[in-house]
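Hey,
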Amino acid sequence: MSTLSDTWPDFFSQALQKKFQPNVLAIILYGSWLRGKRDTLPDFYVVLDTYSCLPSRWERLGNRMLKPNVYSLLLHQEDQTCAAKYATITLENFTSGIANDFHPYLWARFSQPTEIIFSKNPSVYLSISNAFTKASERMISESIPMIGSEFSLNTLWETSLALTYRSELRSENPEKMREFMGHYAKHFEEKTHLIGPKYGLSKSVRGTWVCHANQSKRYTTIVKWKLRNYIGTLLSVTRLAKAAFTFNEPLEYILWKVERHTGIKKEASVLQKRHPLIFAWGLLWQIYREGGFK
């Protein structure tokens, strides 16, 4: 029997459709809510046909210059309250970003299980589904040279995820990583069987995966991931600053997220909460030094 918490995504989908009509093309649910986690915020992507529906010139500019914009939304149902996080992006930026972006911000997220909970028409649904497949291709092709010539399914995807986490200053508990892989083992196995042969992967008699990447390819890939880490540091800081203008209580959300993923707990002062862009940098640097961001 479904509970109220199970129906929150539908309530949010309806609210977001109403908010962005007639420009909303699709709504995507992703993240830990899909794994049954209820101690977190539901995460949505709102796919639009244009940024002109965003309320201010600065928001429209921010979404074009550094996609996506991230917002929070609070809903009340049957005397209960639930908060969600949603990002806005056009369909063109979504598909081209997954296919072409050097940094993995988009293709890392959408190589993982997701659910299209609303689409305007079958054509939109197909475009987004194809983008999901492309995201998995990027994850596999960009990670193979970083692994040995023979490896397990878990090694392939855990390496891929770890590389992308580092490029976003995200720190993930290894135990949670194993739990994540165990929960979605079938998803990643199906993706690897479907996509792997295209990039030289084959299954050995021992049940492992085999791929022989030449040394020049490996060196090139190492350099690419180092560049992604440097670029990711700048992008992460810029996105944090941008979120201060679009997200309610952004510092509290960051501290909660860090504690949830790493166990590192920090308290912000009233002044840091009120003016995070001015006073919170010392606290964030302290979290970084302790391993909250990697």
